[in-house]
Specification:
The chain has about 160 residues and is α+β, with helices and mostly antiparallel strands. It has a four-stranded antiparallel sheet with strand order 1-2-3-4, covered by helices on one side. A hairpin with a 2-residue loop joins strand 2 and strand 3. The two termini are about 25 Å apart.
Length: about 160
């Protein structure tokens, strides 16, 4: 996993990208870095990171359990960042518009969201977002890695 490309779409190795944030070696310096690392946490089922980076004022009492239950049948595939407003080191707030593609019960969906982030005491948090979910006819190429995270190419896994 550490020698593979990061699922966030940065074209960097996981070990040199989102793993640094998920393992708490570093803290994201921008809202976009937090967005990418949160997608990667969904991809790898790193639920404690998702809870810890969700603003405390927005967390549910049983958020960890809720995340685990809601994500049982979801497999995250791909992240596309459309637009970033603010969210740099000099800002206290930021917004990231993105599309996250996922598979649930062998159907593909796109989650398109404008997420809001806030920085408090030098830590970025996900605050909330305006989500829209669409069924999509996402087509994976035969040589892409399979959405199920088996490590196999799509043509040797779920494309059969």
């Amino acid at each position: 996993m550490n020698n593979s490309l990061c699922p966030c779409g940065s074209s960097r190795l996981y070990s040199q990208c989102c793993a640094l944030f998920i393992t708490a070696s570093l803290m994201p310096e921008t809202a976009e870095q937090l967005m990418r690392s949160r997608f990667t946490a969904f991809y790898f089922n790193e639920y404690p990171y998702l809870v810890n980076t969700h603003h405390p004022s927005q967390r549910e009492a049983n958020e960890l359990t809720s995340l685990q239950n809601s994500q049982e049948t979801s497999h995250w595939i791909k992240l596309i960042i459309h637009q970033v407003k603010h969210g740099d080191k000099q800002h206290q707030t930021g917004q990231v518009e993105f599309s996250a593609f996922f598979n649930e019960n062998n159907e593909f969906f796109e989650l398109r969201e404008k997420s809001r982030f806030i920085r408090e005491q030098d830590q970025w948090y996900y605050l909330d977002g305006e989500p829209n979910i669409y069924r999509t006819n996402l087509k994976l190429k035969r040589n892409d890695l399979c959405w199920c995270q088996s490590g196999k190419k799509f043509k040797h896994c779920h494309a059969l």
